[in-house]
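Human: I hope this is not a bother. Would you mind checking the protein record under this note? Thank you for your patience.
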Amino acid sequence: MKKGILLGLILVACFYESNAQYGGRYGRGYRRERFQEIQNFKPSLDVSIGYGFPNLDKYLLTDFYNYYQGSTTQTGPVIASVDYHFTPRMAIGVMVNYGKVSRPYYNAYTGEQDFTGSITNTALLLNFTRYLGSSQKILPYTRTAIGINTGTSKYVTSDGGKAADTDEGTSLAYQVGMGVQFNATKNGGFFVEAGYGKYILSGGLKLRF
């Protein structure tokens, strides 16, 4: 609940700050610069695909009394998003993350592995991007995304038996971060990003239509 409230405040702050960028300063030169920026801007549909590391879904795996955990293996998250870039400084869209994490659980008394836990997760998030510069080549941005995890978790013994009951309900998913987009051509380029939520570091390609 506290995370949900915090992310809600972040979303409100992003909208407020973006509006303030256009209405909070009244210098004549600033208004002329903004007017030219808007006049030259053409809305676009931005499609990106990338890969994040590490997969922070590992923290959704359950801790069990009298068991300690081994090393985590991961796939993804693979990141895909479609965003409508509707003003020079703002875009809104949908982001999907897919990944899998697993780790062994060892008996604290015998030291032997009793079972393996895994989560295969698809997260669907509403994505808000705020661009911080006007350069067409190097474009810093901030990202705020919030949505739901729809993963399935399993705790399975070596012989395929069920080691523990799991809660298969949905949970909060979020990602906040800062990144830089490098536009190699007018039709797109690549990006690098650092943040927290689903991953800490990511990179990939972005195309503009």
In short: Helices lie at 2-23, 28-40. Residues 1-7, 9-14, 20-26 have pLDDT under 50 and may be disordered. The longest strand covers residues 113-131. Residues 161 and 207 are 45 Å apart (CA to CA).
